[in-house]
């Protein structure tokens, strides 16, 4: 398999969300590749009512069923975050790195899965295997994942192998998330008559200062779960970031609205309800400012995965790479809480992301050696008898 050419081709398909471009093209392109490595495949259309009212959503579902063996479902996504300031969808290979949006997060790992399945195409598998390649992970996809249950049964008690993960160690935990849009209210007037209005942008400043004081406390919270030394951290840490501020129509108009968007990441020991109460308490303590929460999105925290499959995967990683480990990751996703709370299963991860890969940033890249190594790991995990 010419995996580098395949990776270039899939990276070149612009699957940016928002808005959610070329999803069906990418899924349909992948289908024959998975059939070629021995899978039964189906491209599933997801109705808008099961996709947060978005059109054009879908998934690729693949199976290599081994009745009576432990249930294992691989998870991946083909959507990517927006890219500006570089030619992100013209992949280039330089010094063992393949550059392009989604190369590490996470189309490279999909190619690794193809490599692993090719290695065991004519061999029995240790597990009863299915695959879900989804859309909208970089946006929100909980309702889509729940809709796909009917195509993946049985899911109760299943193990989920997330390929949306870091390279070199098993991912056993992720951060929960709470995102809030805080709408600060004002009164719009001509700038020359500002004494008759209320400037929502200026009114937002005491709220921001209070949030920054809370941030100083939040980032001191450490989890008992270790993280990879590559992150520069020792353990998972909580986060609170003010990532967007929008306000004003024109420079000579006093703005009547300002939106502050915050992103709170929670360690496994925290919970969303308590984090929200803490934030609202801080905001409510600011006097003389009128505001409301205009949008909320959250991902519940999940306890670290503790499953025999994690130990098995850890041993395979050691065999292939010479190093290993079991770490929490400083990212979040919809899959973990659905697996844990709805399907009573277990989720763990291994992918091709490295700290230096610049995911979500300019010049994202993946090491091609990692794509190949992950393919080898997957093959051995599915059939330990591979030479």
Keywords:
387 residues; alpha/beta; Aminopeptidase; Alpha-Beta Plaits; 2 domains; 6-stranded mixed beta sheet; 4-stranded antiparallel beta sheet; 10 helices; 17 strands; 31% helix
In brief:
The protein is α/β, with parallel strands linked by helices and 387 residues long. The protein contains ten helices and 17 strands.
| CATH class call of the largest domain | Alpha Beta
Work out the helicity level: 25-40%
Sheet with the most strands: spatial strand order: 1-2-6-3-7-16
Number of strands: 17
Q: What count of domains describes the coordinates?
A: 2
Task: Report the span from N to C terminus.
Answer: 18 Å
Q: How much is the average pLDDT?
A: 97
CATH topology annotation of the largest domain: Aminopeptidase
The tally of helices reads 10
Report on this structure.
- With 387 residues, this protein is of the alpha/beta class.
- The chain folds into two domains: 3-174 and 302-382, Zn peptidases (Aminopeptidase), CATH 3.40.630.10; 178-299, Alpha-Beta Plaits.
- The protein has ten helices and 17 strands.
- The protein has helices spanning 3-11, 23-36, 103-119, 142-147, 149-152, 200-218, 272-284, 308-321, 335-342, 368-382; strands at 40-45, 58-64, 71-77, 92-94, 97-99, 128-134, 159-162, 170-173, 176-185, 222-226, 235-237, 239-247, 257-266, 291-299, 326-328, 346-349, 365-367.
- A six-stranded mixed beta sheet has the order 1-2-6-3-7-16, sandwiched between helices. Strands 12-13-9-14 form a four-stranded antiparallel beta sheet, covered by helices on one side.
- Helix 1 (3-11) packs antiparallel against helix 3 (103-119), helix 3 (103-119) crosses helix 10 (368-382) and helix 8 (308-321) crosses helix 10.
- The protein is globular and about 80 Å long.
- The model has no long low-confidence stretch (mean pLDDT 97).
